[in-house]
Design a protein that fits this description.
CATH architecture of the largest domain: 3-Layer(aba) Sandwich
Oligomer: single chain
Order of helices and strands: EHHEHEHEHEEEHEEEHHHHEHEEEHH
CATH class of the largest domain: Alpha Beta
Structural class: alpha/beta
Radius of gyration: 21 Å
CATH topology of the largest domain: Aspartate Aminotransferase, domain 2
Number of strands: 14
Largest sheet: 7 strands, mixed
Strand order of the largest sheet: 2-10-9-8-5-3-4
Length: about 375
């Protein structure tokens, strides 16, 4: 049977609701007119609210990686030393971006499945006092880790370093307060916690970070934040290039919806779904990958049963049942599976996902009988209504 669509239970892009998708089907508006400027301005203001900042925030036409590159290109001169914290694939990506711009990365590679500690950062800074900036992933979707950005920001606040946080998958889904936590630069994107299609990157900067931007000759032109600031402060706020106009329509609708529901309520909803999912997986005897104290509510990462390739499970879930979960990334591809708990989803979608996963695991010989996972999830949801 050919399925008409697929439910995305992946950590990004996430499953979207029809109102957000239909908003993007509107007729184009010209991006240098008063027809479009209010949309752009509203998106910026709502995002500042959700980032937890009153300072600078600019939108780019890119994915989250474009936002990461924008931060590095604008904040550091060639040859500067940057500490790149690696708690998964996206921490490695920050290292690669720094290398591409001829910086000198000092790599802090954490043990698989574990968050970075303040002691590890402190040790690296003492060993390399020349470090001028630090990159950290807030929510690492390859490993399910949520790093303690509040503690890191408090530790670094008086040390004269630029703290850059990859918030691509965490913002909109987890508590985050950029200004209160002393974060200098936060990057994110439209397709994960902000519940919109891919195409809009976001870069927020503290006043401290902006002062550094003014001293750096940007490595490039398209992502030069000085140009974004210039155009955003015009009488008709504008974007320096042609933006992803229809994605912005969808983003505006998604941000309005989050604001109506309340960001805190969205975060609580995701926490409930994550708790139910983990209860179900544990009841099936599946081993979780991430250390408990650092486990993110954006997704849960777990080991596939021994002898069953993750790609086999992913393929059957998608091709037979129309549910797309994620396998592991890169070095984790042969061992891990990932299921999200964010997006336009609820208990119905998770219960269906776990029920179908149980069916597949029974057919493959891992389970003798079905029901343990879905029963554990239902019990959890009933206790947390």
């Amino acid at each position: 049977m050919e399925l008409l669509d697929t439910m995305l239970m992946t950590p990004g892009p996430v499953h979207l609701d029809s109102e957000v998708l239909l908003a993007g089907a509107r007729q184009l508006r010209h991006h240098r007119t008063n027809d479009f400027a209010p949309i752009y301005k509203e998106c910026v203001e709502l995002l500042k609210k959700f980032f937890g900042t009153t300072q600078h925030l600019y939108l780019t036409t890119s994915s989250g990686t474009g936002g990461m590159e924008t931060a590095v290109a604008n904040l550091f001169n060639e040859g500067e030393t940057v500490l790149t914290v690696q708690t998964g694939v996206f921490g490695v990506r920050f290292t690669q971006i720094c290398e591409a711009f001829r910086l000198k990365p000092v790599v802090l590679k954490c043990e698989d499945g574990k968050a970075v500690t303040i002691d590890q950062i402190d040790e690296a800074l003492k060993k390399h006092p020349e470090i001028s900036g630090i990159t950290v992933t807030f929510n690492e979707t390859s490993t399910g880790i949520c790093n303690d950005i509040q503690a890191i920001g408090n530790f670094l606040k008086d040390k004269g370093k630029i703290l850059i946080v990859d918030g691509v998958s965490g913002l909109g889904a987890l508590p985050f307060k950029m200004d209160d936590w002393h974060v200098d630069v936060t990057v994110s994107a439209s397709q994960k916690g902000f519940l919109a299609p891919p195409g809009v990157g976001m870069v927020a900067l503290s006043d401290k970070a902006w002062k550094k931007v003014e001293t750096v000759k940007c490595h490039g032109y398209y992502f030069d934040l000085k140009l974004y600031k210039r155009d955003q402060e015009q009488a008709i706020p504008a974007y320096p290039w042609t933006p992803a106009i229809n994605v912005m329509f969808s983003l505006q609708e998604a941000l309005r919806k989050i604001d109506r529901i309340g960001l805190d309520n969205c975060i609580k909803h995701y926490a409930k779904l994550a708790g139910g999912l983990r209860a179900g997986l544990k009841a099936l005897g599946l081993k979780l990958f991430t250390e408990e104290k650092a486990t993110s509510n954006v997704l849960t990462v777990f080991y596939a049963p021994e002898g069953i390739a993750p790609k086999e499970i992913v393929s059957e879930m998608r091709n037979k049942y129309g549910i797309l979960i994620a396998g592991g990334q890169e070095q984790f591809a042969a061992t891990l599976l990932r299921i999200t708990t964010i997006g336009a989803i609820g208990e119905r979608d998770l219960l269906g996902t776990i029920a179908l996963l149980e069916m597949i695991l029974k057919k493959k010989g891992y389970l003798k009988q079905t029901g343990a996972g879905i029963n554990a999830m239902m019990d959890y949801f009933l206790k947390h209504e």
